[in-house]
Amino acid sequence: MTSIIIVDDHQIIRDCLNDMFTKQGFKILATASNGKELLSALQTKLPDIVILDIAMPEMDGYEATVKAIEKYPDLKIIILSSLTDQKYYYQMVSAGVKGFIAKNAGINELKQAIIEVASGGSWFSNELLQNIIYSMNKKKVEETKVKLTDRELEVLNLICKGLTAEKIAEELHLSHDTIRTYRANLLSKTECPNAPALVMYAIKHKIIEI
């Protein structure tokens, strides 16, 4: 059973998510109204997933993410927020979140995101990615100087679809270790800190289309 901590400064949001997740078969370890309460809860309860808002009093989602991942590097955080501007995407992805969903998303998408992230993947709402693409299309996008092999492009495309290393290995009929090597090479070539940042890089430089 996937365990979750819910972090949002609105009581009604916490209560609704608590109720929905429980009905979906998830285990709620704790709820928190800001980043400070999250850090306190993490001292005794490490969940599979943290569902985190960005705009909160005392300590916002960005600061909480940075501090939480610094102390718990394997912590998996999904942002659930009404702040969907491009700058928040890059900020939170750079901080290490594994997913980003708008608050107007349906419960089915949120459930799928939790399942994917818990299994080692990532999840970014297609609607939000399209907004980023639209925003970037209005600006001049610099050409990427990174040269990728055909196989690296295949792996990158599957990473951008949210597939885990295990699923990519099955799709391409390669070993898990081989896929990990390709992923490491992609991160090194693009100078990205993690897979979500790699997705943003691929979109920004028009390497893939969502």
Topology record:
Blueprint: E1 3-7, H1 11-23, E2 27-32, H2 35-42, E3 49-52, H3 61-71, E4 77-81, H4 86-95, E5 99-102, H5 107-118, E6 123-124, H6 126-137, H7 150-160, H8 165-172, H9 176-190, H10 195-204
Parallel strand pairs: 1-2, 1-3, 3-4, 4-5, 5-6
Helix pairs in contact: 2-3, 7-9, 8-9
Helical coverage, percent range = 40-55%
Overall structural domain count: 2
Structural class: alpha/beta
Morphology call: globular
Strand order of the largest sheet: 2-1-3-4-5-6
Approximate strand percentage? 5-15%
Annotated CATH topology of the largest domain: Rossmann fold
User: CATH superfamily name of the largest domain?
Assistant: Response regulator
Distance N to C terminus: 31 Å
Task: Describe the protein.
- With 210 residues, the protein is α/β, with parallel strands linked by helices.
- It has two domains: 133 residues, Rossmann fold, CATH 3.40.50.2300; 65 residues, Arc Repressor Mutant, subunit A, CATH 1.10.10.
- It is 52% helix and 12% strand.
- It has ten helices and six strands.
- The chain has a six-stranded parallel β-sheet, with helices on both faces.
Based on the model shown, name its key terms:
single chain; 210 residues; alpha/beta; Rossmann fold; Arc Repressor Mutant, subunit A; 2 domains
